Amino acid sequence: MNDASLVLARPAQAARLVLLFHGVGASAADLAPLGTVLSQQLPEAVVVSVDAPNASTLGRGREWFSVVDITEASRPARIAQALPAFRDTVAHWQRDSGIAAARTTLVGFSQGAIMALAATQHEDACPAGQVVAVAGRYAALPDRRPAARVHLVHGEQDAVVPARHAREAFAALQALGADVSLDLLPGLGHGIDGRAARLVASRVGEG
Q1: Catalytic residue among 49, 110, 151, 154
Q2: Catalytic residue at 124?
Q3: Could you please report the per-residue DSSP string of 60-75?
Q4: pTM > 0.85
Q5: pLDDT tops 80 at residue 188
Q6: Which parts form a coiled-coil structure per UniProt (predicted)?
Q7: Can you spell out the DSSP letters for 14-32?
Q8: Residue 206 vs residue 157, higher pLDDT
Q9: Rounded distance, CA 20 to CA 45, Å?
Q10: What pLDDT score was predicted for residue 77?
Q11: What are the chain's domains?
Q12: Which of 72, 129, 132, 150 sits between 20 and 30 A of 163, alpha carbons compared?
């Protein structure tokens, strides 16, 4: 496991675990400011910004899987190959903090959100009680109701992961009877602005 993850808060009497997962080509430090905001809002939470395990094939930062020459056909296999390491990472921090899955929130941006959403569809137990996915997507629309509450936050002008993926995921999860919400942000591209950060904090606070 890559050991460059950043523990942003570790209260003596921890009751929750919040794990943040960055996008491809980024690092744990990129989501540290958001994690600091969450730690201030949730003084009972262990907050960790997780560094992805692999050096990015884009030439900088880290990744869970390569996006070089990725296609709709190849994406599911790449995510599936990365998923055991992702689930092991979540389990590691749950053991480290003593916090169970039901009290764990996964906050992902872009590739981090893709991995968090994929984890909710795994045949084994869902690793978290709540997932907040910013600018993420499913490789294939979900076919099982996730045990986790799922919050989708997406910029309407996202040219990297188009907002239609969020709309389609929301509709599919609703049809499965999932506990799901969707927040679309006009004018926002592929990123996290102040509005998105406030929405993430609000959704995490509901957990």
Answers
A1: 110
A2: no
A3: SSEESS--TT--TTTH
A4: yes
A5: yes
A6: none
A7: --EEEEEE--TTB-GGGGH
A8: 157
A9: 13
A10: 96
A11: 6-205 (3.40.50.1820)
A12: 129
Polymer length in residues for the chain: 207
CA distance 76 to 56: 18
Per-residue model confidence as pLDDT tens digits over 6-37: 999 999 999 999 999 999 999 999 999 999 99
| Phi, psi at 202, each rounded to 5° | -65, -45
Nearest to 66 by CA among 114, 124, 6, 131: 114
| Residue in the structure block whose two tokens are 């509901």 | 206
Q: Is the pLDDT of residue 59 over 90?
A: no
Say which amino acid occupies 47.
Answer: V
Catalytic residue among 5, 22, 56, 158: 158
Distance from chain centroid for Cα 145: 17
| pLDDT, position 2 | 55
Q: Is 39 a catalytic residue?
A: no
In this structure, are residues 114 and 82 in contact, taking their beta carbons and an 8 Å threshold? Answer: no
Mean pLDDT for 93-104 is: 96
Residue-wise pLDDT tens digits, 189-202:
999 999 999 999 99
| Range list of H helices, the chain | 32-41, 75-97, 111-119, 164-175, 194-205
47: its two tokens: 């907050």
Distance CA(167)–CA(149), nearest Å, equals 16
CA 162 to chain centre: 17
Answer yes or no: 110 catalytic.
Answer: yes
Cα separation, 54 vs 57, in Å, equals 9
